[in-house]
Amino acid sequence: MARHLPHLGLRTVKTGLAVALALFFADLRGSPLPIFAAIGAIVAMSRTVGDAFETCRTQFFGILLGAGFGALFVNLFAGFRWIGVGLGLIALILLCNQLKLQFAVPLACIVFVSICLSPANEALGYGANRLLDTTIGLATALVVNVVIKPYNNRARIENLLLHFRQSVPAYVEERVLHCRYPDLEPLRIQLGRIASELAIFEKQKPFRQGGHADQVAYLRGCEQLAHSVWQELSALCTMDEMGRLSPENAAQLSVLGLTAPDGAAAPPRTDADIVANYHLDNLLRAYRYLDAFSCSGPE
User: How much is the average pLDDT of 94-103?
Assistant: First the structure.
């Protein structure tokens, strides 16, 4: 039996490259703590450039504040280390909150404590080296992430939207033409995946080519139309009876590649007929817009 080689993703390759370069740059300056350059490169190699920026911001401010406070308090409270650690943490957290840097609190506290537990005569050097080496790692990973094929999941989103559109006709056929109640959970899951991928796509803005905002707006529009289709289909599936298909909606079923059986269409008479055809008309309209919109999106 043939054995398949493990998949080697681009992010894996970029992580290895970023760590190697970060360690190289740390060695060039004769760093005594090159491990922090490697750690910085690893944590900054996020899925998207936007996520990488957020990680770099957290790491930089967390270490800067923690190292600065640590160097200060380890000297002020040299004889009362435990009291200094407690008071310093309180002051550090208050400062982070005042500067609206709450995201950096956990890391800043960890760095602060690690420096306070260092010998007083080494605290300042340890903090400075840790900040510098981590910054080297963060900057290296950020450059690698930006320069070497930044992550772009637009094609994945468009494929998910295409799969959604292709799935809809079978559900409509089941409910409208056969008066059965299909399980809509797979469609709901598809919408969730589309929303999740879109959230990732929106974070890819830094260093992206022009028009990213237009692409986001286009994809969000497609998502909203897909959600409208699902909502109208859900409404049809909550009705006790489907009602009779109107001639107008019977003709519009062609947009889904469906054909109503002869004699199935008749002018609405009952409330069920009117309500069902209202939701079906909305569904077909949203689907038609989604189909047209998906075929004319921005490049």
Answer: 88
8 Å CB contact between 256 and 172? yes
Whether 250 and 265 have beta carbons less than 8 Å apart is answered as: yes
pLDDT (tens digit, 9 = 90+) per residue, 55-86? 898 899 999 999 888 888 877 776 666 777 88
Task: Please tell me whether the overall predicted TM-score, pTM, comes out greater than 0.85 for this model.
Answer: no
DSSP, res 177 = I
| Secondary structure class of 265 (helix, strand, coil) | strand
